[in-house]
Amino acid sequence: MKVSSVFKLGTVATFSAILLAACGSSSSSSAGQAKNQTLNWMESSALPTMDPSLATDVVSGETLNNVDQGLLKFGKNSKTYPGVAKSYSKSKDGKTYTFNLRKSKWSNGDPVTAQDFVYGWQRTVNPKTGSQYAYLYADVQNANAIMKNKKAPSTLGIKAVGKYKVVVTLTHPVSYFPTLVAQTSFFPQNKSVVTKLGKKYGTNAKNNVYNGAFKLTYWTGTSDNWTLTKNSKYWDAKNVKLQHVKFSTVKDPQTALSQYQSGKLDATYLSGQQPKNYKNSKNYFSRTGSSIAYIELNQRKDAVLKNKKARQALSLVINRDQFVNKVLDDGSKVPTGFVTTGLSIRNGQDFAKSASVPSAVDYNLAKAKKLWKEALKETGKTSYNLTLLADDTPVGKNTTEYVQSQWSKLPGLKVTNSNLPYKTRLARSASHDFDAVVTLWGADFPDPITDLSLFTSDASYNNGGWKSSTYDQDIKDATTTNANNPAKRWNNLVDAQKTLMKDQGVIPIYQPGKPQLVKSTVKGLIYFPVSSNWDFSKTYIANK
Predict the structure, then answer these.
(1) Distance between CA 172 and CA 56 in Å, rounded?
(2) Please, is 261 exposed, middle or buried when counting C-beta atoms within 10 Å of its C-beta (0-12, 13-18, 19+)?
(3) Predicted confidence band of residue 219 (pLDDT cuts 50, 70, 90)
(4) 332-358: string of b/e by CB count within 10 Å (b at 16+)?
(5) pLDDT per residue over 140-186, tens digit each?
(6) At residue 354, does pLDDT exceed 70?
(7) Taking 90 as the threshold, does the pLDDT of residue 378 lie above it?
(8) For 335-465, where are the alpha helices, taking DSSP H only?
(9) How wide is the angle at C-alpha 339 spanned by C-alphas 273 and 371, nearest 5°?
């Protein structure tokens, strides 16, 4: 997610997708629980949207994951478990899925029906909605034609059979499809509510309804704080222990640490020197998610960034080992490519290793200078100015400052940094209003396609406009012709990443670590490394 995408082939093994933190337990026992069941949680960026069709970022995804629920939900070991659907079946040819829904309700008391899924899915693929995640529906019958305005949204391969049965038709078998329907982009939507609210839908706490463990009870749409309250209408409400989850946006790490120490926060992320100072604390947790921080270059703007040698020079001049271990020092890793280490394993082989292109992440100052000079000459330039965008968070500022110091070593290059609020930076990226931008992508499921599908020529997240017909063909083969041939599909994806990296379509910088302090009274906290997401439905506050 922008931090998102989709899940795993049955033949692909992966690491556990869930960690229970803070010595927690998901037990539903009330013994030892504190009277005040309020979790005070920190975020480094404000909440952008609560529209499931429009959400693209980690903060929106995390909040939606706790206030809404799809047909299925994620659980231990990257498996899916019953959500609104109490059971499902698949046809012999693998192209038809039938989901049997339980009787559940929206927070306003309306029943959650099969038609809510039909409407939600049709709304997301409708090009008028403008969903950047509509491409996740590509394998659902007629989705691609709908997204290209060649067919009506009503022709999407999903239908309601009565009130509590959903039937989905795919264009071809997709073995990881059950994990797709657990994504926020596949959540149900209440048509009467969406229609009544129009453009106000999902813009604040009141302009929505919820079918998950919690409901959003405070958020103005622009506030840095928002509050979740236990949803009494949730089908499994009896097993939800928290009464409230209070989110606070705290961008300054020292302020966040002070609030944690004073009891205003139950958890805080660490940065700078903080991880070193707290590594021996019993409340310290170092988490590595399947996300990648990378630089996207706007190849739509001028000849320089379209030049392969220029892109290679901008990558080679970055000393990632120094940045990760000396500047960040927070458990982050040097990447081997765009797909992160540990995301997908097949026959004991990590995809990241199989598809690595060392030259795309190496440090070589002399070669970088040589390539940069050649690029300027080839494009008729003697100098070049560019602005580097990133979030206005501490790590965002650290990244732009370091990259600026490295890029400034290239002759004739002047770099200006611009650190913007997360929401603004996202908008600038989506509208292609940038020269270079530091961005973050988090895998939504343990399969390389969740990352590599971003950079096909027509992908909605290909903000830099990089194009390769060879890459497009490999991705197409992996998702169609070889979809049910694990070995050939794997090779397609390996070749695709190698093409992306050899051409330096994007510049991977680091695989982020997430050092954190969590109070020992917080139990049953569930973390999903694959999507860098949290589930609070089993969390509770224990007595001190």
Answers:
(1) 26
(2) exposed
(3) very high
(4) bbbbbbbbbbbbbbbeeebbbebbbbe
(5) 999 999 999 999 999 999 999 999 999 999 998 887 799 899 989 99
(6) yes
(7) yes
(8) 351-354, 365-378, 394-407, 422-430, 449-452
(9) 85
Average pLDDT over residues 197-214: 98
Taking Cα atoms as reference points, which of 389, 397, 402 lies closest to residue 429? 389
Cα-Cα-Cα-Cα dihedral sign, residues 323, 329, 332, 333: positive
Q: What is the pTM of this model?
A: 0.73
Q: How far apart are CA 495 and CA 491, in angstroms?
A: 6
How confident is the model over 268-276, as a mean pLDDT?
86
**Contact status, residue 406 vs residue 368, Cβ threshold 8 Å:** no
For 9-45, the three-class secondary structure string (H helix, E strand, C coil) is CCCCECCCCCEEECCCCCCCCCCCECCCCEEEEEECC
Helices (DSSP H) in 283-391: which residue ranges? Answer: 303-306, 308-316, 320-322, 351-354, 365-378
How many other CB atoms are found less than 10 A from the CB of residue 527? 20
Q: Are strands 525-528 and 80-82 parallel, antiparallel or unpaired?
A: unpaired
Q: Radius of gyration of the chain from Cα atoms? A: 23
Please, are residues 9 and 175 in contact by the beta-carbon 8 Å criterion?
Answer: yes
Q: What confidence tier does 335 reach under pLDDT thresholds 50, 70, 90?
A: very high
Phi, psi of 225 (to 5 degrees): -125, 150
Using alpha carbons only, give the angle 118, 238, 536 rounded to the nearest 5 degrees: 70
Amino acid identity of 187? F
